[in-house]
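Predict structure. Chain length: 171.
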Amino acid sequence: MLEGALSWQLDMISTGHLRPRRDPLNPDLFIPHPNLDDAINRNICQSEIEGGVFLDELGVGAALEVETRNRRYRVEKRGDNQILIHGHAKFCPDPVVVELRGSTWGGSMMKEGFIGRGMRLEFRHPSFGVILTSRIKDIRECVRKPADVRTGQPVFASSSVVGSPVCSESQ
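Prediction complete.
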């Protein structure tokens, strides 16, 4: 029991994120934390199944298309916990730099720095404060190609690394 709790603490110290433990003999198998409620372990396990991406694992300039139940956002990493986001008529009709807080299941528990399917994206807007999106349906990585010679605009290709193979420039 103590060994399991200790490995979660060490991961938290080394990476800054509370990431699930893995069975050393079967790294695809999630091991529930012994000190967490079953509902919390279930949410963590579900986020592992549905997938997502930690912002700190992306390079600066990496672009994602995040489709929620109600909207489609374009997100670009700008730096530590900083993203350029647009796609909401009221809060970000034009690209705006915000602080990504992470994803939540709708309660107070948050997976910091994470954008995850089935969860709600939470970010701090400079004018509107904390914004919580509807549930994320899909996440797609946008791969930037050289600019279109006719228009000079960047061209984005699809990548199925994070989600389905469709991604478009939405500016």
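Summary: The chain has two domains: 2-51, 54-157.
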